[in-house]
Amino acid sequence: MAGVVVATVVAVPIVLVAGVLVWWSASHAFAPNAARDAVEPVTAVLEDRGAEKTSTDSDPGLGPDNITPWFTVAYDVTDVATAQQLLERSAADLGRPLLPLEDDSTSTPAPCTEILHWAGAEGPDGNSTLTAEVTHATDAAGQCLEHGAITVSGTAPTPN
Fold first, then answer.
1. What is the value of pTM for the model shown?
2. Alpha-helical segments (H) within 30-157
3. Using CA atoms, how far apart are residues 43 and 88, in angstroms rounded to an integer?
4. Tens-digit pLDDT profile for residues 9-18
5. Which residues pair with residue 10 across a beta bridge?
């Protein structure tokens, strides 16, 4: 009888921990991400025009470490000015124009960089944010070149 009790005391926590780990992995990997849903319609125009997606990173905001969904995507572009215009037009078509970020004197953008964001503090759903960092590559003399990168980041309301 003591062997059954010991086996139960050992097996139950192992099964519970394994179950939590499986749930955690599955819920985060395949969970919907409201921030991605807010960013992708704006950035789709870049991909349609041949911008090369170089990286993405995200979190659906379901864990104890982060309750705010966020999503970031970066692109290499051959013509930064045209890509920026496309991005701005796409955001405006969705009802929230991108505007230059006001100088808050807490950070200085890198040379040949412009930071844009949704007008006001809210996105189309009333709570999402979107920021686009548009960066021209520079030559050895520090002159802005035509090609560069665009990084778009967004957040969304905390899921219920």
1. 0.72
2. 34-48, 80-93
3. 10
4. 777 778 777 7
5. none
Q: Are 158 and 59 in contact (CB under 8 A)?
A: no
Beta bridge partners of 148: 77, 136
Measured between alpha carbons, how far is 130 from 97 in angstroms, rounded to an integer?
10
* Per-residue pLDDT at 46: 85
What would the pLDDT profile of 26-73 be if each residue is shown by its tens digit? 555 667 888 898 888 888 888 888 888 999 999 988 888 888 899 999
Looking up tokens 């379901």, which residue turns up?
A: 62
β-strand pairing of 52-59 with 70-77 = antiparallel
**DSSP code per residue over 7-58:** HHHHHHHHHHHHHHHHHHHHHHHS---HHHHHHHHHHHHHHHTT-EEEEEEE
Q: Which long-range contacts link 105-109 to residues 24+ away (Cβ below 8 Å)?
A: 109/133
